[in-house]
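Re: duplicated header lines in exported structure tokens

Our pipeline writes sequence and tokens for each protein into one text file. With two proteins the header for the second block appears twice in some exports. Here is an export where it did not happen, for reference. First protein block:
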Amino acid sequence: MSRNRELQFISGEHDHQRCISSAMTNAEHLCLQRGQRFTALRKRVFELVWQQHKPIGAYEILEKLQPDGRSAPPTVYRALDFLLDLGLIHRINSLNAYVGCIHPEYPHDGHFFICESCKAFAELDSPLITAAIEQSAADVDFEVHRHTVEIMGLCPRCRIKICREDKNE
């Protein structure tokens, strides 16, 4: 069964602070459950990744941490690696950026719809995609360790905006 009922691009009516708070609570619980330390830096990096619901690069995170006095690149990359290893965030390879994971409670690979215009994204959680990749790999005796599927296009907001612009021309 697909878990895509939650598949959506975040709209303007979204209660963003509640979303960040819920993600933070889930992350703290997951770290506790797995016996991992959720240090102040890890929490801050996690919060920055969740802050805008758009992919964010490591150097952008680094810039936002400078006022806190935590600007060493290795420190940020270690925090990102920790969050990736725990499944709390995903890496968007094509953008060299990171996004918060909406389902960190169970291991899964990342599948994303990414807007080419505004960079908004929606995490697609489809067991059918994973099954197709695994079957294709098995057909050629390939062992899959992890995968990320990134589907580029236009989100609903940008499609409407472009449609309106076309009508006005």
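Second protein block, exported in the same file:
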Amino acid sequence: MSYPGAPQYPQPQYPQQPPHPQPQYAPPGYPVAPPPPYGAPAPPPPAIAPAMRVDLVQGTPFGVAYPVVQSVPSGQAIGALVAGIGSMLVALFAICLAGFWGLVAGGAFTVLGVFLGGGAIGLGLYGARRIRRAAGEAITGKGMAVTGIVLGAVGAGLALLALLVSFLAA
């Protein structure tokens, strides 16, 4: 819209630039694939397993869908494994201290080793029970639970052995 008597200025004409080419990247020695034309359909997604199982209900056109749930490791089994490894390390440290630093240092680390071993055994048993009740479908980690139980028992036994060694050395 222009006002009457307003001077008319010429509009600047800018040259049209061609569209920027898209960079094509390919490893050296390999040809660059041409880009897909506009309007081409997208490639189909890769074929994967169905996300759920559907069972039909007898006498109706309906079905019941059961989603596939990814299994997760049991937190109690992981805790049992960590506590069992800790119990073994503390028990070995208590054995090293038992002969040199006496009954007080060996006894303190023995108590810690026995507590860690007992915790590993308790967590391992609880985790194994949860895994067994889940029938191995939603919760996994039975091997970690059993390993935690074994390491906890051995760690507690070694810690008690360290206490015996410190009594004999005193």
